[in-house]
Amino acid sequence: MTTWDGFVDGAPTISEIFRRRHAATGNLCMLGTLRADGWPRISPVEPRTFEGELWIVGMPDTRKFDDLARDPRFTLHTATVDTHVSEGDAKLWGVVENRPDPDLHQRFAEALFDETGFDLRGQEFGHFFGADIRGASSVQVGDGHLDIHVWEPGEKERVVRKH
Question: Which part of the chain is the Pyridoxamine 5'-phosphate oxidase N-terminal domain (predicted)?
């Protein structure tokens, strides 16, 4: 399993672009899941890192989390509005695992409250998905070229340059 910390160690360029773009959009990303009928679904989500892991959590009883409970594969893309991608963008993919651990949930709720003021303390969580990151890529525009960084667990980031 590749946690967020493992991803950062293995893919420093991609993870930095992801962090920067994630922060620039107020933590908004687009989550790709598979619907029950097999068609893809794209939904907004605000993933968070906590205790060295990436958590894909949010409002309970939403279809995106039903999708993940049924089929744990996902892709996560930084929300990009610049067609020139001048600030770069990043995506990662993997599988989630539901973690029904009330102590973990409350530690997460405390950290979320301390960081944002949003109060979930004392509430029960439905799905609480931790991400096993299986791959990632990013793009950056340079002087007349596009650098595409690609990473898989156990490998070093590699760069494909397009002119």
Answer: 27-109
